[in-house]
């Protein structure tokens, strides 16, 4: 099998309402990626996602650094292609951020081709480890721009829909305000739901220590991204001071950086994102590192759940799948299937990454 052509795309898709965390406010997402054709008549789609900025930079990496070098390659050599791209034209300017996100799109498209060629859903091509429905948690009721009343009302709605795990944002102007908001939601949901909190890197070590100490009473599933995402020692120090499990990984771009968090005891829940870490190839390596250290993997929903629904089924140490239904904007041919707080196994061949023709027509930008 040989790659005969590849074309990039950039879609700008509204998320339906304004949502905020401590880092940003979001009204649109960009889906940027490529479709790769082969001489076997099989095409694959890969993409990465931004919160509204930077899509053109990533597309430029695809168009000017990657696509020419893909032509003539055999998708069966996906791990070799990964190394060639990584140590190729992008190496001098990249190794994290936009170049790695572009590489994610390529790698996902290649695995999509391999799964379609094998006539299997990606999770079975990778050697299925979990065939049962995967428990999910919902982040969509906990945005930082919501009032306390809205937080509690939307949490109640999700419980009625069958969700049993929710995540909310912290990182308002004072830790005291965060503690009051989390306390109100915990009181509203009682023991009917597992509750997690996410600071989106907003705190410095002193604030994180105070926040963790004061939030411990609310029986939280984890505290997410409390600190700067590159600061391994600060996370390790925080973990030694608090009983709250520490989750992170959505802004960690390399297997090596994950290794440092994992082997130094600086993380409990590994949130590796297939659209940020360079694709499925390195995602699996990170998941194996976590497994060897006895850690659970709960991928960040940065892929809009389409690829991660496969990957959590391909490893033994996955736990919960993050879901943000607001971002189920409908551009995919095989939309993720959710039922009463669980994700149903996708069975169509491929990685569930193909977009509809209508999505390309409606959301494409040049
Ligand atoms: Mg997060």
Sketch the topology as an H/E string, one letter per element: EEEHHHHEHEHEHEHEHEHEHEEEH
Can you say what the CATH homologous superfamily of the largest domain is? Enolase-like C-terminal domain
The ligands bound in this entry are:
magnesium ion
Q: Distance between termini? A: 30 Å
Give the mean pLDDT: 96
The total count of helices amounts to: 12
CATH architecture of the largest domain: Alpha-Beta Barrel
Spatial strand order of the main sheet: 5-6-7-8-9-10
Characterize the overall form: globular
Low-confidence stretches: none
What class, by secondary structure content?
Answer: alpha/beta
Count the domains: 2
CATH topology of the largest domain: TIM Barrel
Plain-language structure description:
The chain is of the alpha/beta class and 366 residues long. It has two domains: 3-119 and 356-363, Enolase-like, domain 1, CATH 3.30.390; 124-343, Alpha-Beta Barrel (TIM Barrel). It has helices spanning 55-70, 78-86, 98-117, 122-125, 148-160, 175-189, 205-215, 232-241, 255-263, 280-292, 308-311, 357-363, and strands at 3-20, 25-38, 43-50, 134-138, 165-169, 194-198, 220-224, 246-248, 269-270, 296-297, 321-323, 338-339, 342-343. The strands form three sheets. Strands 5-6-7-8-9-10 form a six-stranded parallel sheet, with helices on one face. It is globular and about 60 Å long. The model has no long low-confidence stretch (mean pLDDT 96). The structure holds magnesium ion. Magnesium ion binds next to loops.
């Amino acid at each position: 099998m040989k790659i005969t052509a590849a074309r990039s795309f950039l879609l700008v898709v509204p998320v339906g309402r304004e949502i905020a965390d401590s880092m940003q406010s979001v009204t649109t997402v960009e889906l940027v990626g490529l479709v790769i054709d082969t001489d076997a008549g099989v095409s694959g789609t890969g993409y990465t996602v931004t919160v509204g900025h930077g899509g053109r930079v990533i597309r430029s990496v695809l168009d000017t650094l990657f696509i020419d070098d893909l032509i003539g390659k055999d998708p069966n050599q996906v791990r070799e292609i990964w190394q060639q791209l990584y140590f190729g034209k992008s190496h001098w300017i990249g190794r994290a951020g936009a170049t790695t996100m572009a590489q994610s799109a390529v790698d996902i498209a290649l695995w999509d081709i391999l799964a379609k060629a094998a006539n299997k859903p990606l999770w079975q091509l990778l050697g299925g480890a979990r065939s049962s429905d995967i428990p999910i948690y919902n982040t969509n009721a906990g945005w930082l721009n919501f009032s306390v009343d809205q937080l509690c009302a939307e949490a109640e709605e999700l419980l009625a829909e069958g969700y049993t795990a929710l995540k909310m944002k912290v990182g308002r102007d004072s830790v005291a305000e965060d503690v009051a908001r989390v306390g109100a939601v915990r009181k509203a949901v009682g023991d009917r739901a597992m509750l997690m909190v996410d600071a989106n890197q907003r705190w410095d070590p002193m604030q994180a220590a105070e926040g963790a100490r004061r939030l411990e009473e609310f029986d939280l599933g984890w505290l997410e991204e409390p600190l700067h995402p590159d600061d391994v020692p600060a996370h390790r120090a925080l973990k030694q001071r608090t009983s709250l499990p520490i989750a992170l990984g959505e802004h960690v771009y390399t297997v090596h950086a994950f290794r440092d968090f994992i082997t130094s005891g600086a993380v409990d829940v590994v949130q590796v994102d297939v659209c940020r870490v360079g694709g499925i190839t390195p995602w699996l390596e990170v998941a194996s590192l976590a497994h060897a250290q006895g850690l659970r993997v709960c991928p960040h929903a940065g892929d809009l759940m389409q690829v991660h629904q496969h990957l959590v089924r391909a490893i033994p140490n996955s736990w919960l799948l993050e879901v943000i239904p607001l971002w189920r904007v409908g551009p995919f041919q095989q939309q993720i299937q959710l039922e009463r707080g669980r994700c149903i196994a996708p069975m169509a061949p491929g990685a569930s990454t193909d977009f509809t023709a209508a999505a390309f027509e409606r959301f494409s930008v040049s």
